[in-house]
Specification:
Elements: E1 2-9, E2 14-19, H1 29-46, E3 53-55, E4 59-66, E5 70-77, H2 82-100, H3 113-124, H4 137-158, H5 160-170, H6 175-202, H7 205-217, H8 235-249, E6 252-255, E7 258-261, H9 286-311, H10 317-331, H11 335-341, H12 344-349, H13 362-389, H14 399-421
Antiparallel strand pairs: 1-2, 1-5, 3-4, 4-5, 6-7
């Protein structure tokens, strides 16, 4: 990702150079510095405009000129997020002036700046720092516990009336019972938060969710999946557990962009009309509906990346597949909105009849169908941008073409399964 940093003047006087990855051949720093300054000066003199970057086949070279003709040149992988690199260059320039001021020393003697560079890189591009960290058994355990707590809160959110308000109202006649019930609810809600704080502070699990946040904030950061250790693939387990929780607790599912309540008769028609009961789970149609929802997760997270990576025609398709699975498992968080909006909890909250929601109503279109479209196509957008970023720069097939063909084939595979399992869908 990061390849090389060079600090020099616009007329070629070199102060510092650092390689971030081992090159096959030794690079002549003096020659490189002279070439960079010559390119920069030529662009300034002939075009009357300063050059900010130029591209190679797999790399991008970024220029940032500071006061007193000082030039910071950073070579990065072409897939790296540009906003991060711009911010990184600014941080390096600021630290350089803070440490050396107006010092002008030639000969690459500022070797003590390497510690500052490492500190800044690991702070800004923290993904590179986790490569050296191992995932211990307690980190896996912490991830499982964290996921279970998140699933618990999903249940609480979708059952606030029954789990909290009704419990408290039922105990109102007795002050003592009301206080005990209130303390119980505070405990089962607050205690998991304390556990999460401890796990995030003392285990590696925080990085798993930290990357999710960074990627969803800016999908172009998906390229950092290339440098993350394999233990980050535990995200697949987290993705399915949360997807399943939203589907069941919101009581909703969707195929493509149509809403189907996860309710007796709501998805598979009147031949499945037995309500869910813990005493007779096998007789309920809920299992059939949950199976269909789980197949959707499987096709997006496992099958879609497989089709995509095989289409590229790369010999190292397994690496692309691994990174695509990782990115898709995070992108699918946007489908949680579809699961919620297509659910009994949401639809009934808006006053619609779950068994007969009358999709033709404008109010239903605005409250259900339109938000479903937004979340679904948002998911496709994030997933497409992210997977394109983890794709090798040169492939036999266009990555964008492969993405859309893979999406289309994935939707077809879902539809075939639905028709085979329940033709009325």
């Amino acid at each position: 990702m990061l390849k090389h940093l060079l600090i020099l003047t616009t007329y070629g006087q070199i102060f510092y150079s650092q390689e971030f990855e081992k090159a096959e051949e030794t690079v002549d720093i003096a020659l490189t510095g002279g070439l960079m300054s010559a390119i920069y000066s030529m662009a300034s003199e002939t075009q009357r405009e300063k050059i900010s970057e130029f591209e190679l086949v797999t790399s991008r070279i970024l220029f940032k000129e500071e006061r007193n003709d000082l030039l910071f040149v950073l070579t990065v992988d072409k897939r790296m997020d540009l906003k991060d690199t711009d911010e990184l260059l600014s941080m390096l320039a600021k630290r350089f002036f803070e440490k050396y001021g107006e010092v002008r020393i030639d000969g690459l003697v500022l070797t003590d700046f390497e510690e500052d560079v490492t500190e800044i890189v690991n702070k800004k591009i923290w993904y590179f720092g986790v490569q050296k960290k191992k995932f211990k058994y307690y980190d896996y355990l912490a991830t499982i516990v964290t996921t279970a707590i998140l699933c618990w809160y999903i249940y609480v959110v979708f059952n606030i009336p029954t789990f909290i308000w009704h419990r408290l109202i039922d105990q109102l006649p007795s002050v003592g019972d009301f206080i005990l019930q209130l303390l119980f609810l505070i405990g089962v809600i607050a205690l998991p938060i304390l556990v999460l704080y401890i796990l995030f502070k003392y285990t590696q699990v925080r990085n798993i969710f930290r990357f999710n946040k960074d990627y969803l904030t800016r999908p172009t950061r998906a390229s950092y999946a290339l440098v993350l250790p394999n233990y980050f693939l535990i995200q697949i387990f987290i993705s399915f557990a949360l997807f399943f929780s939203f589907m069941v607790f919101a009581q909703g599912y969707f195929t493509e962009i149509r809403a189907y309540p996860l309710y007796a008769g709501g998805l598979l028609g009147e031949q499945y009309n037995t309500p869910f009961s813990f005493s007779d789970i096998g007789a309920s149609d809920l299992g059939d509906q949950v199976l269909i929802g789980s197949i959707t997760w499987f096709t997006w997270v496992i099958i879609f990346p497989l089709i995509y990576s095989l289409m590229l025609g790369e010999k190292k398709w397994v690496t692309t597949y691994k990174n695509s699975v990782f990115i898709t498992s995070i992108s699918i968080i946007l489908l949680y909105g579809c699961l919620t909006i297509g659910g009994v909890k949401y639809i009934e909250a808006f006053g619609f009849d779950v068994r007969n929601p009358t999709p033709g109503l404008i109010s239903y279109q605005l409250a259900v169908i339109m938000p479903l479209n937004i979340f679904f196509y948002g998911f496709l957008l994030f997933m497409g941008i992210g997977i394109n970023r983890v794709t090798p720069q040169k492939t036999k097939v266009s990555s964008l073409l492969a993405i859309w063909v893979s999406i289309y084939l994935t939707l077809i595979s879902q539809r075939i399964f639905f028709q085979v399992w329940a033709p009325v869908v």
